[in-house]
Amino acid sequence: MAGTRRRGAGRGRPTLEEVAARAGVGRGTVSRVINGSPQVSERARLAVERAVAELGYVPDRAARALAANRADTVALVIPEPETRLFAEPYFSDIIRGVSAELAEADLQLLLILIRTPKERQRFAEYLSAHRVDGVLLVSVHADDPLPDLLERIEVPAVLGGRRSAHESVPYVDSDNAGGARCAVEHLIERGRAAVATITGPLDMYAARCRLDGYRAALRTAGREVDPELIEAADFTEEGGRLAMRRLLARRPRLDAVFAASDVMAAGARQVLREEGRRVPEDVALVGYEDSAVARHMDPPLTSVRQTTQEMGQAMVRVLLREIESRSERTADRPRLVLPTELVRRGSS
């Protein structure tokens, strides 16, 4: 008898019409129950849920998304080469947090790497076809045009970090300046006289803020900021190695280093070992992020903890609010700055 088959019986998957016939209600009532609408009587809801269970009905996700003018997909965009994606714990932690939060919301994650202007243009065309509901963008450089493009085509977006202090796009960030200041204050309190820093790329606001925190700690302690103790790098291990060599060439008697990432601190540690400098006896070392790299170094690395996985989760929550309220957007955009803390270990 049509409309009364059980799970696995007959051919093909059960349809919405069959569920309606089995429950004795209209097709619209079934749709409202499946989509969680409160505008359904308790009796009808129970009848539909029973019919769904008996028939083994599975909603057509694509059709449901089309009807709601939604793609049920969020893009996480990382404008970096895959070598950085797989080498730096920051990205894996962000992905883990984003993925977990999207799974809770029953949304799909689309991971996109953008390395060239051509790839950026291709992604812009993809967005114009409304194939995603929103975009999460991390590792943002000051000259990246993608955030402004997202604003122009009115795609809800949230940044992990900021391009500047006047960021117009919603963002989730950490207290970069405060974390760096705390790290350098710790080194000064430990009696270190020549505290150097290895910065990230200074076209990134996070790197500039960490450098600002370094300078602020020195000035608060009544010390001058020595440009010879500052070396820019690129958040990579090789960048940390090169920067450490340059610092030692200029200031061989330095006795402390604050590296703006754990990965760069690991590169610096290798050079210090090659040069016969003991950590922490000769040179104290502090990193930033408190990743697995910090815990597995020898000695374990003192590091500024930023809750990277929680940052990814917070980005999703902010984005979902932006998606739901896209028709009510105001000048008061979401801005969230997460706290940091210094985790002291043997390297300092």
TrEMBL record:
Keywords: DNA-binding, Transcription, Transcription regulation
Pfam families: LacI (PF00356), Peripla_BP_3 (PF13377)
Tagged with keyword NAD: no
PROSITE patterns: HTH_LACI_1, HTH_LACI_2
Keyword DNA-binding attributed: yes
InterPro entries, A to Z: HTH_LacI (IPR000843), LacI/GalR-like_sensor (IPR046335), Lambda_DNA-bd_dom_sf (IPR010982), Peripla_BP_I (IPR028082)
Domain HTH lacI-type, first and last residues per copy: 14-68
Domain of life: Bacteria
A molecular function GO annotation: DNA-binding transcription factor activity
Signal peptide positions (record): none
PANTHER family per record: HTH-TYPE TRANSCRIPTIONAL REGULATOR GALS, LACI-RELATED TRANSCRIPTIONAL REPRESSOR
Protein name as annotated: LacI family transcriptional regulator
Organism of origin: Streptomyces palmae
Organism ancestry: Bacteria, Bacillati, Actinomycetota, Actinomycetes, Kitasatosporales
